[in-house]
Each structure stands twice: as structure tokens, then as C-alpha cells.
Amino acid sequence: MNILAFESTCDETAVAVVRDGRESLSNQVFSQADLHAVYGGVVPEIASRSHVEAISLLSERALQEAGITRGEIDAVAVAYAPGLIGAVLVGVNFAKAAASVLHVPLIPVHHIRGHIAANYLAFPELEPPFVCLAISGGNTLIADVRDYTDLRILGATRDDAAGECFDKTARVLGLPYPGGKPIDELSRTGDDSRYVFPQAHVEGHPYDMSFSGLKTAVINLAHHAEQTGEELDRASLAASFTRAVSDSLVPRAMRAVAELGYGKLVVAGGVAANSRIRRDFQTAAEKQHIALYIPPLRLCGDNAAMIGAQGYYEYLAGVRAGSGLNAYASLDLSRSYGEEMVNP
Ligand code: KG4
């Protein structure tokens, strides 16, 4: 089954063709990062406009790269939540039109379920149940993935997402947007014990996280250095910050795997590209004798192949949308399509 998939929830316009949920025949991604870099973050209006400009051409390219005709598309999948509402709407409306003219079913896909499904493309043997840590620019959560479309949130950040924290820290250090990769590179020459940052714990909620205190601590450190004329060791600050993020993520995810007893941990989302975090998870997984799945870098960030992969399993579960499909800025990962309308 060939699924034409669309992703436009933030600042990547992406179109892909995915076969049977496991094989990406094409994966076209247009990153708008350069357009937003000058503002130090994503400007929603610019994101929406840029999606409109790119999506049609990318769709043609995705079909070309896949080497298939329109007639060979069996369904259309689209990320319909969560994200920047204007941006999500572009993908949703384009997908509705595509499904309508191709006379194929339309499958709505939760963006974070898509990030998790990137692992189905990378690891053919991977099947639920497993524990998943999803770490992206807008979301940070630990989920019990009981089945392909049966997910339950075990814990989540109470404030900022891990990626957001990387982006803000990069800004403080004068690094370009998006800041995750530049911090990753800078931190390689730093000493991760040079600066000590606070760790937040939410009483009674062992899987919940908080990153706003860490973000504030970095900002205060930088301001203090500026006021006193003290020179910051930027590489060590980047390394110490990354260590603090990793120390917050790794023990929680490992605890969840131990508690649920699946013996399998999946890490997903843009921050899963971080070399230090990947390394820390590998070490912890070896120590705890569990199987660890982290997608290759090209599947960590936003892309449409992951939407096509999850779309396949949503399709098998009977999920279909009509022309009334809406976009949602926020949506609980555990809710199936249709439930968001019942109790938004
Ligand atoms: O998953 P993603 O592409 O978009 C969302 O769905 O939000 O994640 C983007 C986030 C950005 O905050 C970016 O700075 C971060 O992923 N990121 C990284 C790295 N590469 C991207 N964070 C840490 N280390 C990296 N190497």
C-alpha cells in the first residue's frame, strides 16, 4: 500500500511516499530554518506562507523520487496536530484536496506518533509494545506504546520542551537558530562538569520533567558574566547544559522501561540527533540490558516519511477523515482521531 504523506506542523515542509508503513520510497524535506534564523525562532506567518509556496512542488518531487504515478497512491496521510495552527492547516488542506482528486482515503496522523513511527522505517524488526521518549522542539514526553495506535503518556515536561531549551541556550550563546546542532558541535570540546545546573523533580510524578529552571539558570549565568566582565567558557557551558538535559531524560526513560518490563526503548524527535544524548542512552541501555532504538539523523527531525509510516498503522486501525478534517494546535498523543472533538 502506497501512502502519500504530508508534514507541515512547524518549519519544515515535507512530502513523502511510504510503502506498507515500513519503506520510504521518497522523503522530500524543505527546511525553512534559514528564513527564520534572522528572527532567532519560527515566525508563524512566515512558516505558513512558505508552506503554501513549497508544498505543491515538493509533492511532484516526492512522486518523481518514488518513481510512481498518482494512480498508484492508495491513501493520503497528513499531520493534523499538534503544531503552529496556520502551518498545520496548509498541510491539512493540501492533503484533503489530494485525497479528493485521487479518490483515496484521508488519514489524520498525530505529529508525535509520527516521530515515534520514524523508528518503524529505520528498524524493520521493531514492534510495540515499547517505551518511547519523544524529544522535539515543541514536545517532550515519555509514552507507553502498547500498540501502534494505542499509546498512553507516562510523563511529560511541565513547561518547556527539551528542543526549545536547546534553542534558547543557543541564542544566549550567540549561536544560530535552530540551536541544537550548533550546541552539539560546540559542546564536543567543552568540560561538562565546569558548570553545575539544577535538576527539577516533580513530587509524585517520577516521569514528569521541567526545563524552564535550566533555561533560566543558563540565562542568569550569561547575564552575570556579561555584567561582571567574566569570560564564559562557551564550550563547557554547552557541554554542561547538554549533560543536564541528558541527566534529566536518560534516568526517567530507563526507569519507565524497567517498570513496564518491555525491555525496549525507542527515542524519537529532533533532539534525538544529539550526540551526547545518544551516547548516554547507549551506555545506559547496555548497562540495563535492553534494546535501544534511535533513528538515524535524517529521520530524527520533522519529515513526512514518519507520517506515512504511522499513517499506515492508523489506516489498518480503521482511522479515516473526511473533508471536515480540522487542524489542532495541541492534542494529547493518547487520543485517537475523533476523540479531540468530543472533549477538546
Ligand atoms: O523534531 P523536530 O525537528 O521538530 C519538532 O517536531 O519540534 O525538532 C526540532 C528541535 C529543535 O529544537 C532543534 O534545535 C533540536 O530539535 N535539535 C537538536 C539537535 N538537532 C536538532 N537538539 C540537540 N542536539 C542536536 N544535535
Tell me what the structure shows.
- It is a single chain.
- This protein has 344 residues and is of the alpha/beta class.
- It is built from twelve helices and ten strands.
- The chain has helices at residues 33-37, 44-66, 85-102, 111-122, 162-172, 180-187, 212-228, 234-260, 275-288, 297-300, 305-316, 339-342; strands spanning 2-7, 12-19, 23-31, 75-81, 106-110, 130-135, 140-147, 150-156, 264-268, 291-293.
- It has a five-stranded mixed beta sheet with strand order 3-2-1-4-5, sandwiched between helices.
- A hairpin with a 2-residue loop joins strand 7 and strand 8 (150-156).
- Helix 2 (44-66) packs parallel to helix 3 (85-102), helix 5 (162-172) runs parallel beside helix 7 (212-228) and helix 8 packs parallel to helix 9.
- The longest helix is centred in the last third of the chain and has 27 residues, at 234-260.
- The two termini are 32 Å apart.
- The protein binds 5'-O-[(R)-(carboxyoxy)(hydroxy)phosphoryl]adenosine.
- The site of 5'-O-[(R)-(carboxyoxy)(hydroxy)phosphoryl]adenosine has 19 residues, from helix 5 and helix 6.
